[in-house]
């Protein structure tokens, strides 16, 4: 096995048209556990995920996965290499059943029955609505389907963009429980999240982005314990927000 972080970004810049969005992202995602990417709206978090996945090409800097450069590589090649991306807009097919959505997400339309059973245990609502159109699911259930689709095959790295956005507190609590189970597997997660209760409950390591640059890297425990650091980096206290 290659030593070092599973994923690393060094001095990454990304342009979208004439706009210089990322202006120096440095990030390391250790193998196993969850790394959380925090920052204000518009800081560059989603652009960072899209650059890793290959949906955007970096204009400068280096993206490495398992020690190998992948910056600018096409998304399908990254998917074949074990990276999955769950976008903020979920990307599910509302007119297809839950089963059909899951089948489409699996290469060649086949998946392990044991893995499917594990996923349906993580997200029991999907079992209940297995033969129903995905469009009838609630917002939280659609988010669960989106995550399950990305996990239908074993992945080394899961990129997830704001899974709790717009969800009710009870659904967020259920999502925390599901992610705790996910952390017991060997999947490494890089999570963009605005809900700080969710982030601090699950994160192992954290990076904070501001104006397209990495301004802090460390452990989530360190950030959670330091209200002054939270205020300086994020303009708020984690313990006062959920």
From TrEMBL:
InterPro entries reported for this sequence: AAA+_ATPase (IPR003593), ABC_transporter-like_ATP-bd (IPR003439), ABC_transporter-like_CS (IPR017871), BCAA_Transport_ATP-bd_LivF (IPR052156), P-loop_NTPase (IPR027417)
ATP-binding as UniProt keyword: yes
Record key words, sorted: Amino-acid transport, ATP-binding, Nucleotide-binding, Transport
UniProt keyword Mitochondrion present: no
Any one GO molecular-function label of the UniProt entry: ATP binding
Pfam name, any one: ABC_tran
Domain ABC transporter: 7-236
PANTHER family: ABC TRANSPORTER ATP-BINDING PROTEIN, HIGH-AFFINITY BRANCHED-CHAIN AMINO ACID TRANSPORT ATP-BINDING PROTEIN LIVF
UniProt record similarity statement: Belongs to the ABC transporter superfamily.
Name of protein: ABC transporter ATP-binding protein
Organism: Marinibaculum pumilum
């Amino acid at each position: 096995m290659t030593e070092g972080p599973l994923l690393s970004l060094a001095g990454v810049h990304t342009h979208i048209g004439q706009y210089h969005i990322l202006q120096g992202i440095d990030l390391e995602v250790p193998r196993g556990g969850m790394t959380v990417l925090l920052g204000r709206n518009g800081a560059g978090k989603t652009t960072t995920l899209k650059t890793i996945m290959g949906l955007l090409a970096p204009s400068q800097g280096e993206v490495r996965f398992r020690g190998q450069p992948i910056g600018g590589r096409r998304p399908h090649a990254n998917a074949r290499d074990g990276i999955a991306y769950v976008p903020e807009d979920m990307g599910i097919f509302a007119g297809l059943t839950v089963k059909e959505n899951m089948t489409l997400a699996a290469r060649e339309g086949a998946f392990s029955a044991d893995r499917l059973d594990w996923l349906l245990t993580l997200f029991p609502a999907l079992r209940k609505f297995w033969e129903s159109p995905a469009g009838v699911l609630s917002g939280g259930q659609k988010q669960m389907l989106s995550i399950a689709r990305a996990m239908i095959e074993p992945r080394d790295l899961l990129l997830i963009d704001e899974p709790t956005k717009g969800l009710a507190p009870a659904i967020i609590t259920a999502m925390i429980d599901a992610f705790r189970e996910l952390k017991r597997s060997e999947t490494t997660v890089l999570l963009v999240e605005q809900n700080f209760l969710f982030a601090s409950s699950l994160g192992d390591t954290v990076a904070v982005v501001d104006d397209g640059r990495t301004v802090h890297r460390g452990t989530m425990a360190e950030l959670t314990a330091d209200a002054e650091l939270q205020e300086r980096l994020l303009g708020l206290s984690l313990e006062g927000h959920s």
